[in-house]
């Protein structure tokens, strides 16, 4: 089975000309969403994917540019698509804060019997650091990565050979030793802050310090609106674009 990743958005949290960074893992048999930011439902609409065609959603962390579209997807499945539920693949601790700290405000509705995350989604807890076959042909591993100190955040290995950073601080050892040397990942999708101090994201300057054999595997995402000013200035790395499709190894 051939698998692709289609970027739904490639923008930062504050980008106005790119949708929030999220992606679809696609095959003839499935559409699995990686994150669902505030602008993701609009991007899904652009490419003609309806909420009932989403077979599952993977969540990296609870910033609004990664989960701000979940309420719309859940409400549309419930009210427009007559009580349909999609699968939500999430670590157990993240499921707790996703409901209590983010979704409950808009979605808690005991009058109609909706008071838990499970009332809206088929919640499937994925254990951290354990490669888990979530659908035929698709194995996901959530690994804990550092974004905001003391807050849960996960990057993903997809079928062991593709790394998707979601939002993370630069981690040279993870990229060089674990992702490339040990796991031999050929495709790395990495968030990138183009200018200024990173603090919570990898900066372009930091990523440019990587050896060329690592850089050439990296697609840059989660960038600001001034991305065009940096074309040709990203070493061996390339920008991935909104709605672009790349093949991923099984
Ligand atoms: N210490 C922080 C925390 C947050 N932020 C900004 O808020 C955004 C939240 O979504 P994000 O995609 O993680 O990017 C964060 C920063 O732009 C920031 O710039 N500095
Ligand atoms: Zn983000
Ligand atoms: Zn974030």
TrEMBL record:
Transmembrane segments annotated in the record for this chain: none
SUPFAM superfamilies in the record: Metallo-hydrolase/oxidoreductase
Source superkingdom: Bacteria
Keywords: Endonuclease, Hydrolase, Nuclease, Zinc
Keyword Membrane: no
Entry keyword Zinc: yes
Pfam families reported for this sequence: Anti-Pycsar_Apyc1
Catalytic activity: 3',5'-cyclic CMP + H2O = CMP + H(+); 3',5'-cyclic UMP + H2O = UMP + H(+)
Domain Metallo-beta-lactamase: from-to ranges: 19-222
Stored PANTHER family: ZINC PHOSPHODIESTERASE ELAC PROTEIN 1
Function summary: Counteracts the endogenous Pycsar antiviral defense system. Phosphodiesterase that enables metal-dependent hydrolysis of host cyclic nucleotide Pycsar defense signals such as cCMP and cUMP.
Name this polypeptide is given: MBL fold metallo-hydrolase
Organism encoding this protein: Paenibacillus alginolyticus
């Amino acid at each position: 089975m051939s698998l692709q990743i289609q970027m739904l958005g490639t923008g930062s949290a504050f980008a106005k000309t790119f949708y929030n960074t999220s992606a679809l893992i696609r095959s003839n048999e499935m559409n699995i969403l990686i994150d669902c930011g505030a602008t993701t439902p609009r991007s899904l609409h652009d490419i003609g994917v309806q909420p009932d065609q989403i077979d599952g959603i993977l969540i990296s962390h609870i910033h609004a540019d990664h989960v701000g579209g979940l309420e719309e997807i859940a409400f549309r499945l419930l009210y427009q698509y007559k009580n349909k539920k999609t699968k939500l693949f999430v670590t157990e601790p993240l499921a707790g804060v996703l409901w209590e700290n983010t979704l409950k405000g808009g979605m808690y509705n005991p009058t109609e019997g909706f008071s838990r995350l499970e009332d809206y989604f088929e919640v499937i807890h994925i254990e951290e650091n354990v490669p888990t076959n979530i659908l035929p042909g698709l194995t996901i591993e959530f690994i804990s990565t550092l974004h905001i100190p003391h807050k849960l955040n996960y990057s993903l290995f997809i079928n062991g050979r593709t790394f998707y950073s979601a939002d993370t601080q630069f981690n040279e050892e993870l990229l060089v030793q674990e992702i490339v040397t040990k796991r031999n990942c050929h495709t790395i999708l990495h968030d990138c802050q183009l200018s200024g101090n990173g603090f919570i994201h990898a900066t372009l300057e930091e990523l440019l310090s990587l050896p060329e054999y690592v850089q050439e595997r990296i697609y840059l995402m989660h960038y600001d609106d001034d991305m065009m000013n940096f074309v040709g200035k990203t070493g061996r790395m390339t920008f991935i674009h909104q709605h672009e499709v790349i093949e991923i190894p099984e």
